Prior knowledge:
The chain is mainly α. Helices cover about 60% and strands about 10% of the residues. The protein has helices at about 5, 10-30, 35-45, 55-60, 80-85, 95-114, and strands at about 35, 70, 75-80.
Amino acid sequence: MNIRDIIRETDGEELAALAQFFVGRADDENAAGELSVDAFMQMASKMGINIDKDTLQAAVQSGQLGGIADMNDDKIVFKSKKAAELNPADRYMSLDKAKMTMQQAAKRAANKRK
Length: 114
């Protein structure tokens, strides 16, 4: 019997745990936790979670992955202590950026329905 059979974590919980692992790792190394999106997706794939960039972006924006501070097409920035020290003004999204992000997400969702 596998531990996964006993615990039965959802994919979202496992992705959140993976993100939290990188936060802890960055804090242990006193580094600003950054990782390429492709590397994060490969690690998730090795854990048995198939996810694409759009789904990952939607999970980050909705707050399901609390350990991730920001994500763009190339990299993920984790909520490490060092990252917060480097850019304290960037901890919160500006109103313009939030509107642009929501418009992009709505556009992607509309394109998927076509």
